[in-house]
């Protein structure tokens, strides 16, 4: 009987409502009551699918991450490596309205993950997956220290995204794209740059 009562409500619908709230006002505004209101359902319907708010947050983050990873997986890596890396990493930057909303929500989850082991684990797996994918691209084209360079590229993009959502006037999309181009060029410099670092140390 209970299943029939809440049959019109899905976890995905609630995750979408949570995403909208978080994009506008952060996770602080994502109360069960507000999520229910946004989704057009009762508080009981939310509690039927998620026994705790943290459980709902974890599901919503996984839902967002899955969509992001699907976009990254769709990037064509058969051509120019610089272009492929740009296409992939630009998915993480607030270059348009949709990606700006995603960046706001990802930042909110990152802050929450500091006190939520379950969210921290989702973030850990996500970062590891992206970094591994970047490393594979760099290894395939013979770039030394591929894993370290992949980590640096991902950290740079994360930092740019965070700064851009905090101070959008300082980071228009053209600036972000240029900064990403420069960082990728530095990452791809390969053995020459590594040799310079080794000689200086």
Give the CA-based shape. Answer: elongated
Q: How many whole angstroms does the radius of gyration measure? A: 20 Å
Give me the count of strands: 0
Number of helices: 11
Which sheet architecture does the biggest sheet show? none
Task: Provide a quick synopsis of the model.
With about 200 residues, this protein is an all-alpha fold.
Molecular structure report:
The chain is mainly α and 201 residues long. 75% of the residues lie in helices and 0% in strands. It has eleven helices and no strands. It has helices spanning 2-5, 11-25, 32-39, 43-49, 53-73, 81-89, 97-113, 117-140, 146-166, 173-187, 191-200. The relative contact order is 0.10.
Which helices and strands, and how do they pair?
Blueprint: H1 2-5, H2 11-25, H3 32-39, H4 43-49, H5 53-73, H6 81-89, H7 97-113, H8 117-140, H9 146-166, H10 173-187, H11 191-200
Helix pairs in contact: 2-3, 2-5, 2-7, 3-4, 5-8, 6-10, 7-8, 8-9, 9-10
């Amino acid at each position: 009987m209970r299943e029939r009562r809440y049959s019109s409500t899905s976890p995905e619908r609630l995750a979408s409502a949570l995403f909208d709230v978080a994009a506008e006002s952060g996770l602080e505004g994502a109360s069960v009551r507000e999520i229910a209101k946004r989704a057009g359902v009762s508080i009981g319907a939310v509690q039927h699918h998620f026994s705790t708010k943290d459980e709902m947050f974890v599901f919503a983050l996984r839902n967002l991450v899955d969509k992001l990873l699907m976009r990254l997986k769709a990037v064509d890596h058969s051509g120019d490596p610089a272009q492929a890396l740009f296409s992939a990493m630009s998915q993480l930057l607030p270059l348009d309205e949709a990606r700006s909303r995603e960046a706001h929500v990802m930042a909110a989850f990152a802050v929450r993950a500091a006190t939520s082991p379950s969210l921290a684990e989702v973030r850990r797996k996500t970062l590891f997956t992206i970094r591994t994918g970047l490393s594979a691209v760099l290894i395939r084209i013979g770039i030394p220290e591929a894993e370290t360079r992949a980590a640096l590229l991902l950290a740079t993009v994360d930092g740019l995204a965070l700064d851009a959502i905090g101070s959008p006037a300082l980071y228009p999309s053209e600036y972000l794209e240029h900064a990403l181009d420069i960082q990728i060029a530095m990452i791809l410099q390969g053995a020459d740059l590594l040799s310079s670092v080794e000689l200086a140390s």
